[in-house]
Automatic annotation (TrEMBL), chain B:
Belongs to the AccA family. It is found in: Cytoplasm. Pfam families: ACCA. It comes from candidate division WOR-1 bacterium RIFOXYC2_FULL_41_25. Its EC number is 2.1.3.15. It catalyses: N(6)-carboxybiotinyl-L-lysyl-[protein] + acetyl-CoA = N(6)-biotinyl-L-lysyl-[protein] + malonyl-CoA. Pathway: Lipid metabolism; malonyl-CoA biosynthesis; malonyl-CoA from acetyl-CoA: step 1/1. The keyword Lipid metabolism applies. Acetyl-CoA carboxylase is a heterohexamer composed of biotin carboxyl carrier protein (AccB), biotin carboxylase (AccC) and two subunits each of ACCase subunit alpha (AccA) and ACCase subunit beta (AccD). This is Acetyl-coenzyme A carboxylase carboxyl transferase subunit alpha.
Length: 286, 322
């Protein structure tokens, strides 16, 4: 193995360790913030919606945590829970896709990278989709696409607004072209929602890139984002390799993307619920 | 003949020797020393046969090479060969004109159509001017603007897909590459006119799909369509771009694979060895495929066309429900 490849692999391993660590903070009394490096009481962090009390760094949330933070207590009713990915290409890299699916299900306690359902926010009904990065990097395969399409179709039936939280590196390569087709499927479903004048709020969280940003995530009547989230089409490394120059500071971060006109509201997690309620009330008034 | 040899792909090298022999025979023949026309004919036949043999057992990565062949006919080649009265339309009316994605009005056997497609070059200079067929957001926005014209005047749309992918650059990101593609996907689903998409070379991910949501999606025999390039897939999943070969195989990116998966509707045959060996013939095949597929669509109402497209893409996905 060349030094270059060794380095790349090493870096990748570090990155996955990093992601795992910052997703679950099991039992530790203290957590070190990834941004300011300060030690925080786990309980303080959790009380603060997993936003660093010192520097406002937004830790990643699981779908379950997001549901608790955003919806009215016990109002969330999951739909289409048990749709499971299939290794229809018999795709194997270092592991087979079938093994990856199995492992991810066990590790994340989820069936795939999105949880969908009906819920209430400030007593207003919503069709809610929440991606979970801990399931294969929130990648979009057939299941994510199908759950989103069904969620939107249910919203049409119930005449409910749709809110989708994205957290996804993009299409799931292990499903080849079929993952690309989910972009078409989800966007087409949103077209129907729009035709019927039902609102859609997209909330982009760290990260929202690739096939996810280039489909349902960018199509909100209102596009919202958590602060400092990576949001873009191509990944920063791909861009750097293509243009062979350094990227500008803040590039592809929420605030930068907002400055360039793609996001309506960059919203601190601690104000998110209130802002979503305002939007829902605004849309709800007839 | 020199050109043909120069353009041979790695796996076609056995042909080089035959081409050389053919050249010699022709030289002798034209010098008038001996009548070699029989031998020339035989050699040509041998070349043809070898090309046919080679193209029967092509591996996915070899098909990738043909799909990316520098001499492979481009969108504007096909426009010239199979359409008439073409006028190119430029600009997205917001930022600029994207030379990597061309659009225009034209006629197909007398029928007014809108045509669009990614545009690659055949030389380095041309490719730089065309950004190697990698469109920026303004390209996708131009495409949408032209699709709206098609809709307003009730004309069918034909799109030719041949791109490594949407351009990954700073400006592209700043101007909303993701938004431009996403919006096209949503809007294409709602088009009230017949829409046929043809993958003619490289169907590179979102950049391809951005103009690719036809009622019918067709693929040339030696084109590819994939969520990421084999090299990209190999470098991410196999941690080694050199393993593109395996990635090409694993991802199922050839026309035959995609037909089996139900992602495309039809494979358009190519001349022996690939479209670049006979662009005129390739264009005839494409033209008849378009006409055949367009006909039933022309009979559908606006509502039916939208439903047809929605159902087509709505069905895509393979999963298990417990
Ligand atoms: Zn901090």
């Amino acid at each position: 193995m060349s030094i270059h490849n060794w380095f790349k692999r090493k870096k990748a391993q570090q990155e996955t360790a990093y992601v795992r660590e910052r997703l679950d903070i099991p039992g530790n009394l203290w957590v070190k913030c990834y941004k300011c490096n300060q030690a925080i009481f786990t309980k303080d962090l959790e009380d603060n919606l997993k936003v660093c009390p010192k520097c406002s760094y937004h830790f990643k949330l699981t779908a379950a945590e997001r549901i608790i933070q955003i919806t009215d207590p016990n109002s969330f009713k999951e739909i289409n829970q048990k749709i499971v990915s299939k290794d229809f290409l018999n795709f194997t890299d270092s592991k087979s896709y079938a093994q990856r699916i199995e492992k991810s299900i066990l590790k994340s306690n989820l069936y795939d990278a999105i949880v969908t359902g009906l819920a209430k926010i400030s007593n207003l009904p919503v069709a809610l989709g929440i991606m979970d990065f801990s399931f294969m990097g929130g990648s979009m395969g057939s299941v994510v696409g199908e759950k989103i399409a069904r969620l939107i179709e249910l919203a049409l039936e119930k005449k409910a607004p749709v809110i989708i939280f994205s957290s996804s590196g993009g299409a799931r390569m292990q499903e080849g072209i079929m993952s690309l087709m989910q972009m078409a499927k989800t966007s087409a479903a949103l077209g129907r929602l729009r035709e019927n004048s039902l609102p859609y709020i997209s909330v982009m969280t760290d990260p929202t890139t690739g096939g996810t940003s280039a489909s349902f995530a960018m199509l909100g009547d209102v596009n919202m984002a958590e602060p400092d989230a990576l949001i873009g089409f191509a990944g920063p490394r791909v861009i750097e390799q293509t243009i062979r120059q350094k990227l500008p500071p803040g590039f592809q971060r929420s605030e930068y993307v907002q400055e360039h006109g793609m996001i309506d509201v960059v919203c601190d997690r601690r104000q998110l619920r209130e802002n979503l309620s305002k939007f829902l009330r605004w849309f709800d008034e007839r | 003949m020199k050109d043909k040899q120069k353009n041979l792909l790695g796996f076609e090298k056995p042909l080089a020797e035959l081409y050389e022999k053919l050249d010699e025979l022709k030289k002798v023949s034209s010098a008038g020393e001996m009548d070699m026309s029989e031998e020339v004919k035989m050699m040509e036949k041998r070349i043809e046969n070898m090309r046919r043999d080679l193209s029967v057992k092509l591996s996915p990565i070899q098909i990738v090479q043909i799909a990316r062949h520098i001499q492979r006919p481009t969108t504007l080649d096909y426009v010239a060969l199979l359409l008439t009265d073409f006028i190119e339309l430029h600009g997205d009316r917001n930022f600029g004109d994207d030379p990597a994605l061309v659009t225009g009005i034209a006629k197909l056997d007398g029928q007014s159509v809108i045509v669009m497609g990614h545009q690659k070059g055949k030389t380095t200079k041309e490719n730089i001017a065309r950004n190697f067929g990698m469109a920026n957001p303004e390209g996708y926005r131009k495409a949408l603007r032209i699709m709206r014209i098609a809709e307003r005047y009730n004309k069918p749309i034909i799109s030719f897909i041949d791109t490594p992918g949407a351009y990954p650059g700073i400006g592209a990101e700043e101007r909303g590459q993701a938004e431009a593609i996403a919006k096209n996907l949503r809007e294409m689903a709602e088009l009230t006119v017949p829409f046929i998409s043809i993958v003619t070379g490289e169907g590179g991910s979102g950049g391809a799909l951005g103009i690719g949501m036809g009622n019918k999606v067709l693929m040339l025999e030696f084109s590819i369509y994939s969520v990421i390039s084999p090299e990209g897939c190999a470098s991410i999943l196999f941690r080694n771009a050199a393993r593109a070969n395996e990635a090409a195989m694993a991802m199922k990116i050839t026309a035959k694979d995609l037909l089996e998966l139900g992602v495309i509707d039809e494979i358009i045959k190519e001349p022996v060895g690939g479209a670049h060996n006979n662009p005129e013939q390739a264009a005839t095949y494409i033209k008849s495929a378009i006409i055949k597929n367009l006909k039933p669509l022309l009979a559908l109402s606006h509502r039916e066309l939208i439903a047809d497209r929605y159902n087509k893409f709505r069905k895509m996905g393979i999963f298990e429900e417990q």
